[in-house]
C-alpha cells in the first residue's frame, strides 16, 4: 500500500510518519484486504491540528475521515478511530461487494463547472454567487447499492455515478428527512 503523508505549512517528522503507517495500516488490514493507497494531510489552524485521511480501496470505494485536536498525534489517533469505525461499520457490505465484483470500478472522466451569475442592477450583491474554479473529477461505474455505500463512506451529501445496469448517469443524495434519494433520469430515444 502506498502512503502519502503531508503537512500543509507544517513539517511532518519521521516519527509521525512511522506512527501513521503503523496505526493506519493495522486498522486497514483488519477490515480491507487490498487497499491501494492512503493520503493523510496534517494542517494547523491557530492552536488546533487537523488530520484528514482518505483511503482508496481496490473495490473502487473511498473511505474518508477527519479529526481535530490540540496535539498532532491526538488528531491522527482520533482520525484513525473514525476510519476504524467507518470500515468496521461497512465490513460486511464491503466483503459482499468485493466478492461479487471481480474487476475494479471503472472510472469515466468528467468536468464540473461552477459559474457565477452576473449580477444585474435589479439584484442586490448578496444574491450573486461566489466564483469557484473548474475542476476535473472521475465518475465511477457502480450499482445503486455501491453508490449509496460510497456516498456514506465519503460522508458526502451527493454522489454522481454511472449506473452499471442502465448505463446512464445517476445521482444519489442525502435527503433532509435522513433518507437517501436516487435520481435515475429516463433516457430519451
Summarize the structure.
GO terms for molecular function: ribosomal small subunit binding. The chain is an alpha+beta fold and 189 residues long.
Structure overview:
- The chain contains four helices and nine strands; from the N terminus they run βαβββααββαβββ.
- It is α+β, with helices and mostly antiparallel strands.
- β3 and β4 form a beta hairpin.
- α1 packs parallel to α2.
- It is globular and about 55 Å long.
General form: globular
Q: How would you state the average pLDDT, rounded?
A: 78
Describe the main β-sheet briefly. 5 strands, mixed
Q: What is the spatial order of strands in the main beta sheet?
A: 5-6-7-8-9
Name of the CATH class of the largest domain: Alpha Beta
Low-confidence stretches: 113-117
Q: What is the CATH topology classification name of the largest domain?
A: Double Stranded RNA Binding Domain
Span between termini: 45 Å
